[in-house]
Amino acid sequence: MPSAPDPLAEAHRQWTNHFSADGADGLATVTSAAHIARLLRQGAEDALAPYNISYAHFELLTLVMWSRSGGLPMNKISSRLQLPPASLTHTVGKLEKAGLVARVPDPKDKRSLLVCITDQGIALAAAAGPALNAFYESLSLTAGEQTQLQQVAKKLRQQAGELAKDSPSA
């Protein structure tokens, strides 16, 4: 348990002294969000560690697994996971090498490839899912707090142009 003063509180104090209290609140918001994201991501990574899979790999596997056909084009995966094409190509390559996905010709467009989950990928995602679900259920936030956090995040994502104003909530 940290015994030192909260560095965020000190940064807030310093920002207020040198710039403004409103700006200090913004600083605290951005820094808090970054720290929370890191902590939550690390918790998810820890939950998946026994399965030798990263959170990013699990996201891709489940996205493809839960698609109607068990496969998606790279551009759809890139858009839905908000991954740059180069990162997605690298991730798919690693999963393909591990036998968890395969790139197959798109039956609707022979020029395109689909990333499809393999039986091994389905088995891994199905085994790892409950461990990740247990982590999600262990978050020390009430359902109401989680809803509030999701609404605030949605508002910021809309402001940044990532979502349409009328996008449905999580």
Could you walk me through the main structural features you see in this protein, from its secondary elements to its overall organization?
This protein has 170 residues and is mostly helical. The protein has a domain of 82 residues: Arc Repressor Mutant, subunit A, CATH 1.10.10. The chain contains 7 helices and 3 strands; from the N terminus they run αααβααββαα. Strands 1-3-2 form a 3-stranded antiparallel sheet. Strand 2 and strand 3 form a beta hairpin. The longest helix has 28 residues.
Protein topology:
Blueprint: H1 7-18, H2 21-48, H3 55-65, E1 71-73, H4 74-81, H5 85-97, E2 101-106, E3 109-117, H6 119-137, H7 143-159
Antiparallel strand pairs: 1-3, 2-3
Integer-rounded radius of gyration: 20 Å
Strand content: 5-15%
Put simply, the count of helices is 7
Q: What helical percentage do the residues reach?
A: 55-70%
Q: Predict the CATH topology of one domain.
A: Arc Repressor Mutant, subunit A
What is the element string, with H for helices and E for strands?
Answer: HHHEHHEEHH
Mean pLDDT comes to 92
Label the overall shape. elongated
Secondary-structure-derived class: mainly alpha
Unreliable residue runs: none
Kindly state the number of beta strands.
Answer: 3
**CATH architecture group name of one domain:** Orthogonal Bundle
CATH-defined superfamily of one domain: Winged helix-like DNA-binding domain superfamily/Winged helix DNA-binding domain
Describe the sheet with the most strands. Answer: 3 strands, antiparallel
Distance N to C terminus: 33 Å
